[in-house]
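FORM 7B: Structural annotation worksheet

SECTION A. Query
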Amino acid sequence: MFMSKILIVDDERDIVELLSYNLEKEGFSIVKAYDGVSVFNVIATKKPDLMILDLMLPGMNGLDVCKKVRANPATAGLPVIMLTAKGEELDKIIGLEIGADDYMTKPFSVKELIARVRTILRRSQDKPETKLTEAFHYKGLAINYASCAVKIDSKPVTLSPMELKLLFFLSRNPGRVYSRNQLLDHVWGDDTFITDRAVDVHIRRLRSQIEKDMENPRYILTIRGFGYKFADTK
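SECTION B. Predicted structure
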């Protein structure tokens, strides 16, 4: 029987032990982290199926951890439940906007949290191809996310690391429009020296590599007054 692995990230060890005890009783496997910096090594080595993430963490706060997880193609599909002592509506909105799947405020009901864990896992496992996909194909564009290989009509294309990250992010979210600031948050993360106009420059460079006609792009589309999106593949 498949045992889902849950990563609990919280600097309050009593909370971690409480959740560990109750989740293990329900048949889950548990891994733990107590600060924001060590999370990424744990994710890479333990490969959890869902992360329960506290907002207030030493080293790197939960919002920044979530942004970095979502910006990395290898971890972008990891379900995240944000857990925090803060109850303000703004914190909830920010957490959900940057990619958290759910949000609970301390003190919380352990039974309710377990129910939400089950719901989110069931939802993510209903579409395993979305979570596990390593390749993308659309109108001659072929992307292998695992090997970072990009081809146009079977011809290899060389992209810079940032162009790759931008293409990976947009192609994993086809049809969805992102503003420049949203792309900065998701793709560049904490790089405060980058302006929103840098997005235009990188979009132009990316198009020059993958589009046959930059004035009439097939893949990366401009939505005037809003931002950019990858073409709707449905």
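SECTION C. Observations
The chain has a mean pLDDT of 85. The CA atoms of residues 83 and 104 lie 5 Å apart.

SECTION D. Sign-off
Analyst initials: ____
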